[in-house]
Design a protein that fits this description.
single chain, alpha+beta, 4-stranded antiparallel beta sheet, 3-stranded mixed beta sheet, 18% strand
Length: 296
């Protein structure tokens, strides 16, 4: 029987392992497990980002994903649910199981604290919305994302869309659309590696600017994916060029800017999608190829 794929159904285990008693005992630890995807990513770096830098600092709990993008982190019990899980897909060594090939560029994804059961470009966007808008709840961020992607209210945007795409059921098409959109988001992120990444280091300001721009144009990115158009479409070609121009113009030493204007309120569904002919298309607040918004 087909089952709806939700974040709760994805792999997530937290098991407290009690330390030995007495003065020589060790601190209790926990195991936090999950899955990483744009397609499932094998051989990606996963760590608990305690200091919010998007890069491993040499002391944070870290592991590598296995087949099916699975990971398991051993962390101090007190850290469970407190910090984001961050993933780095590594050029030449991380394999995207969608293609069976190693990724060509590094890129970074994450999930909000306590929500690392399925880390993907979509969970990354949920986190970025929350980071840019203090006080925003995960539910509000997911509602915004759901509306940007023109998804029904029942869809879990933190669910395993790879598994959902392969299971017959009422949301199979929607999960497939989520998967295709996530693939194109990942391609945009990887395409900016030369400006955002330096080895394993991440320029946080440029990373946030990149994600803000992707967020502003997400309905059009989704539309591009839903229509079966790839990264070579006119829209995507223009967007990649504009992203590169914007990121290059930001000094590499520039600190974290306030990009809250790039994560404006997006909870009114009709603001983003209206019927045109026989299908829903982005409209209103979305940015077309000639109307992509810059920083504010």
């Amino acid at each position: 029987m087909w089952k709806k794929v939700t974040a709760a159904a994805a792999i997530l285990t937290v098991g407290i392992i009690a330390g030995c008693g007495g003065g020589g005992g060790t601190a209790p630890t926990a195991t936090v497990s999950g899955v990483v995807a744009d397609g499932y990513l094998r051989g990606a770096e996963v760590f608990l980002d305690r200091n919010g830098t998007y890069q491993w600092d040499g002391t944070e709990p870290r592991t590598t994903t296995g087949p099916g993008g699975t990971y398991s982190l051993t962390v101090p019990a007190g850290d469970v649910g407190r910090y984001p899980v961050v993933v780095r897909a590594m050029a030449g060594s991380t394999v995207d199981e969608d293609t069976g090939q190693a990724v060509q560029n590094d890129y970074v994804m994450s999930a909000p604290a306590g929500a690392g059961s399925f880390v993907s470009p979509l969970s990354t966007m949920v986190r970025e919305k929350m980071e840019a808008t203090p006080g925003m709840t995960m539910t509000q961020a997911m509602t915004q994302l759901r509306n940007q992607l023109n998804m029904p209210a029942g869809m879990d945007l933190l669910g395993d869309y790879v598994a959902g795409s392969n299971q017959t059921g009422p949301y199979q098409t929607q999960y497939r659309n989520m998967h295709q959109t996530a693939q194109q988001m990942a391609a945009l992120m990887a395409g900016q590696a030369g400006l955002v990444m330096s080895g394993s280091s991440v320029n946080k300001g440029r990373y946030r600017l990149m994600m803000g721009q992707i967020n502003q144009n997400l309905p059009q990115i989704a539309n591009n994916a839903y229509q079966g158009m790839g990264m070579g479409s006119a829209f995507m070609t223009t967007m990649q060029s504009q992203l590169q121009t914007m990121l290059a113009a930001m000094t590499s030493t520039g600190g974290f800017g306030n990009y809250s204007g790039m994560f404006r309120n997006m909870t009114t569904l009709h603001y983003f999608w209206n019927y045109s002919g026989s299908r829903m298309q982005p409209t209103g607040g979305t940015m077309g190829v000639s109307g992509m918004m810059g920083t504010r």
